[in-house]
């Protein structure tokens, strides 16, 4: 592989330019900003490096589908997305979120880690391998959707309508990180999600807060309702919530025991003294990987500007994100939540479903996993950390497990990449290393049985 | 008085223009918008109608002090303010908040009810009375501050430094309303206030919500902390909170029993089915007038924009307004709140004090009260409703009760004036009637023993 690796090093600046160009094009799905332009740009890049590409319409944003070679025995697919999270709070960024500025060996941009760095690294790997070897040893497919950050609303519809396009012998999933110690993580699953907004309404107008002695306050009602959902012991009190959480096997525990999680670096990075409930070691890792969550992502009511304003709010809204583990069903969780609110005297609180994603896991022993691990040792020089499931979420079940495709996730981020947060970044060297790793996987997976 | 009333009717359009001009000048103290311009405008108006006026500096916004006549036996003072609340949410206004548009007999503007309508009505009354009678039968003083909506932060300093300027035999307080049945309210006190912002901090940055399994969420912590403060039964659980609440005398109950509160109109106006705890009748009025409150005026954490964003917030903030009744002490309440948070495991939550206002009450039987009631019957044709205390707040204690001045509050608002809320308004006819009422009080109070 040294010939391909050398080629990648010589084209280093070009591949960085690809990434910067893509990051400088905003593509915020939640706000419908720059989506068509970005899809077109990605389609153009695939064509430029010799692939067949098309934008395939869905009921939402189009999927960019790309294909390289089509006469080989084996097929490897890549799942990525061209949309990014909103960039606010923009005042906390040290450089503009869409400037893709390089400082101290890192590229800073909204989406550079999630997910544009991985997308261009994979395209660069295909480009380099083809250029050096005159072709690819297996068929390569790219499924690049535009709605991952808003819950992959139409991916199931796409997969069902284009089953032959997504069929593959293995899929490299969209994300991946280095641990604090520099070793690579390989993930074999994702948590599911039930993302909901709760809306509590009071009077038909905001009013002077002197009325609050006798008029109900929707902010208080929402606080009381939330308090019935989860208590400071981190227990979620929705009846039936934990019923389908799969028991852990001895292997699950063993993998968890060997999984790296650098507690000290994590606490230091985030300026914290301890984790929730003072957890550490195996129980901490078990909570991170195998336990579902109920997270307040946003709360808004009344006057939140400068200074004081004495108002009684007319509405209160909370955005809640439940991360689910096998075999929880997001639709069932939503029904249980609705029933919980009804039974606790909060039938008036509206629950608006946003995202419903099933959790997913691939067994650790399969051909693609073996290729990923073997080539990781070759490129990174150390054994990768195996993560049975990522605490993050994605539509892996719809695109992979549901139709029998093994999925493994590796990528160019690091443990402080600040996904979804200000100053999102990746290291330039990790990016180049990631390109080499994908090139090596392409070669290795082609000859694996 | 018919001569003065006729003069007021003839000058109706002029007095409306005064009010519109003042409303078109924004004066948002919380945001330091237009404060100097407004103080100058008010000072100019007093001079234009023949008074002595000066802007007196404080450590905050200046007080505009005005004086008419100074050789009479008796002195009547007026307390008003030239600052207004912020106008947001501006999208809920049917006309621009500073346009002072007249529609269907009402003037709509931020501050028109609170407090610019009362301010110009009182100046208009002085103008009309002086014009018709060639002078005033008593000394008149205006104390017009610029910080009422941000808690009258420097009024105590002003009163202490200018005791002789504020001395009077009676004070007409800043606000007043008509009930839903068209009768006039006269108030004899105000609730106090302890306004606080609570800030709960988590990690040093917002992060991807997949971390929420193991990293503490400041939004959840603030929700749990708030839940310990007040429960759905409306009981406030801060130890010692109710200790200084004065017991009600038989007279207090009797006045309350006679006090008008139109439950049906209030519920209908605000689109509600019931009051808190399903209260009605005397218990409802008792809660409104004699019970302290704890109100969430604003709550902000994490992502509150359009669509979904899966973040773990780094901070959560709530603005809390405690309305206090005699003899609660706002400074003591703040100390009790701090102790409560500490004792319930929330020592890390910062409590920022904004406003500390003492509650105040004037006995119902005094010369000014008799003048107000007698002239109200003359102008409005019906007996006014006596309100032993308003559920609203103001610095009455500092300017009146503390230095022995009886205070009564009447004004030109109505029960649906939307103070502090979108579409704040007063009826043009109420404004003109209010001018007549003040003119009549000036004559009547001058001859009262």
TrEMBL record, chains A, B:
Record-linked InterPro entries: Cyt/Met_Dipeptidase, Peptidase_M20, Peptidase_M20_dimer
CC terms in the record's Gene Ontology section: cytosol
Domain Peptidase M20 dimerisation as annotated: residue spans: 189-345
Superkingdom to which the source organism belongs: Bacteria
MF-aspect GO terms: metal ion binding; peptidase activity; succinyl-diaminopimelate desuccinylase activity
Xref: Gene3D superfamilies: 3.30.70.360, Zn peptidases (3.40.630.10)
UniProt cross-references to Pfam families, sorted A to Z: M20_dimer, Peptidase_M20
Keywords (A to Z) from UniProt: Hydrolase, Metal-binding, Protease
UniProt record, GO biological process: lysine biosynthetic process via diaminopimelate; proteolysis
Keyword Protease: yes
NCBIfam families: PRK06446.1
Protein name: Peptidase M20
